[in-house]
Amino acid sequence: MAETWLVMGLGNPGPQYVNTRHNVGQMVVDTLARSMQASFKRHKTGAVVVEGRLGIGGPRVVLAKSTGYMNTSGGPASALAKFYEVDPDHVIAVHDEIDIPFDTLKLKQGGGEGGHNGLRDISKALGTKGYLRVRVGVGRPPGRMDTADYVLKNFSSAEAKQLPALLEDSADAVELVMTQGLTAAQQKFHAR
Q: Is 22 annotated in the active site?
């Protein structure tokens, strides 16, 4: 049986958060869902999901967005992993990363959470840090702006022009991790 991948797009619920930096993970998962020509459906785990395959003969994938807040992402991630029988090394968390410049991607498996409450909750719920992360750079807050205020703001107009390409690259990175492995994806996207 083909292995299933779980791709969690991190973010917050509600229209006021849809276009914020903190929701870039959900935007990437939306991009993947569009490429699969699929719509999200409610799941009993406190998430909305799309089930299917990426491309013809591609990997079986469950795209998910928690219906709760970022800092409670672990419950739905863990429940979905159990429900779909996905091992932690086949869980990919897609999230915003302030320690990476805007329009830059970094991919890794395991490691720390860098103060990211969504990742911290997933690590706790899965009982491991050994899942994969697609870290979408949103840059650091300017001046003395509070980090929480910064990530809950919409992208600037200049960033918004570049955002579609960043989302496509991020979606491509997720797909490459699943089809060719982490190292191949890192070699392609870290070289930019």
A: yes
